[in-house]
């Protein structure tokens, strides 16, 4: 049996993936420590799902390396795969099967595999607990379930595998607020109780703000930023300035991510503007009558960060 020698649950080095001339992963180097909930964000097409496909061994890397739980993703054995749970937005489960039969089939698979592999263990209590948040009857066919119920079943099946690593690709897409809350609670509980590492991608910052320990921002297939969400928000700041005459060109000032005109005021979002007093003085020198600094929530902070990248890409094109 292979031994996990890495301290990182996921480790990529110069990872590339190309689809018909399109670079989905661009020399991506990333190290995720084990434990906690890691949220991946990025614009559409940033490479989040592509990365997950390589990590799960569904797609071979076009260059560089990718390791998961200390093992090369290109050569994952069934036992290694059994240590990784995966939930995607489509919740692809066999529609013709009854919920109870699907559960028993998965349980048998895990208990059977567990005879040869001490790491695999079916957690029936967790399955019941997660599914209790959703109105699913054991005798129902999977195809009859609502989208949210299917998401709950998929999560219950994934968490009952007690995976060391759980990868979720936009799992809450289309869920109502109640189902979403139940889903996130189950995730948090599993991260605490099972010490699972959860890797999660979403465009919904309110969820990430609630559950994530680590924020990973991808941009055009590369790692753009990684830290705790609070640290990230602490580095992004909003400045509201009133320019009584013509608004000067502030976009080019160092650290400026985004400039917007709202209700006659200039909203400037900056990143890593260490010397706030100097920045304020600069704005005043440029003609600002009043300047006010304020913190930003994760949603607006990430939005400004990503739109800065978009603008840079457009300029480069
Ligand atoms: N099968 C494919 N064939 C060709 N191009 C692909 C394929 N799958 C993905 N791509 C391209 O690779 C890039 C990365 O796609 P990916 O699905 O990984 O992005 P994403 O970050 O998950 O996006 P989203 O947030 O929109 O789901 C995109 O430019 C996409 O068009």
Which characteristics define this entry?
Rossmann fold; 2 domains; 317 residues; disordered N terminus; Alpha-Beta Plaits; 29% strand; six-stranded mixed sheet; alpha/beta; AAA+_ATPase
Mean pLDDT: 87
Ions, cofactors and other bound molecules:
adenosine-5'-triphosphate
Beginning-to-end CA distance, first to last residue: 49 Å
CATH fold call of the largest domain: Rossmann fold
* CATH classification, class level of the largest domain: Alpha Beta
Helicity, as a percent range: 25-40%
Strand order across the biggest sheet?
6-7-8-3-9-10
The fraction of residues assigned to DSSP E strands is 25-35%
Number of helices: 10
Element-by-element helix/strand order:
EEEHEEHEHHHEHEHEEHEEEHEH
Round the Cα radius of gyration to an integer and report it.
23 Å
- How many domains make up the coordinates? 2
- The CATH architecture of the largest domain would be 3-Layer(aba) Sandwich
Outline the structure in words.
The protein is α/β, with parallel strands linked by helices and 317 residues long. The chain folds into two domains: 8-227, P-loop containing nucleotide triphosphate hydrolases (Rossmann fold, 3-Layer(aba) Sandwich); 236-316, Alpha-Beta Plaits. 35% of the residues lie in helices and 29% in strands. A six-stranded mixed β-sheet has the order 6-7-8-3-9-10, with helices on both faces. Strands 2-1-4-5 form a four-stranded antiparallel β-sheet, covered by helices on one side. Strands 12-13-11-14 form a four-stranded antiparallel β-sheet, sandwiched between helices. The protein is elongated and about 75 Å long. The chain starts with 7 loop residues before the first strand and ends with a helix. Bound molecules: adenosine-5'-triphosphate. Adenosine-5'-triphosphate binds next to strand 2 and helix 1.
């Amino acid at each position: 049996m292979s031994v996990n020698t890495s301290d990182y649950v996921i480790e990529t080095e110069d990872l590339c993936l190309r689809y018909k001339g399109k670079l989905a992963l661009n020399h991506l180097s990333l190290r995720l420590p084990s434990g906690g909930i890691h949220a991946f964000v990025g614009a559409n097409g940033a490479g989040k799902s592509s990365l997950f496909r390589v990590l799960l061994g569904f797609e071979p890397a076009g260059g560089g390396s990718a390791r998961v739980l200390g093992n090369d993703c290109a050569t994952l054995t069934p036992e290694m795969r059994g240590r990784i749970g995966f939930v995607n937005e489509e919740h692809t489960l066999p529609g013709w099967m009854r919920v109870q039969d699907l559960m028993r089939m998965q349980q048998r698979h895990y208990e059977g595999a567990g005879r040869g592999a001490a790491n695999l263990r079916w957690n029936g209590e967790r399955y019941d607990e997660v599914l209790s948040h959703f109105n699913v009857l054991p005798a129902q066919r999977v195809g009859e379930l609502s989208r949210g119920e299917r998401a709950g079943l998929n999560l219950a099946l994934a968490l009952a595998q007690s995976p060391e690593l759980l990868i979720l690709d936009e799992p809450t897409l289309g869920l109502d607020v109640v189902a979403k809350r139940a889903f996130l609670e189950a995730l948090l509980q599993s991260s605490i109780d099972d010490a699972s590492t959860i890797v999660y991608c979403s465009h919904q910052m309110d969820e990430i703000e609630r559950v994530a320990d680590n924020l990973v921002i991808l941009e055009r297939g590369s790692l753009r930023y990684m830290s705790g969400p609070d640290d990230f928000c602490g580095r992004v700041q909003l400045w509201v300035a009133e320019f009584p005459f013509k608004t000067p060109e502030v976009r080019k000032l160092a650290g400026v991510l985004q400039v917007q005109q709202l209700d006659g005021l200039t909203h400037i979002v900056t990143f890593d503007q260490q010397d706030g007093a100097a920045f304020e003085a600069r704005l005043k020198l440029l003609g600002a009558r009043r300047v006010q600094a304020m913190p930003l929530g994760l949603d607006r902070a990430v939005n400004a960060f990503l739109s800065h990248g978009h603008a840079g890409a457009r300029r480069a094109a």
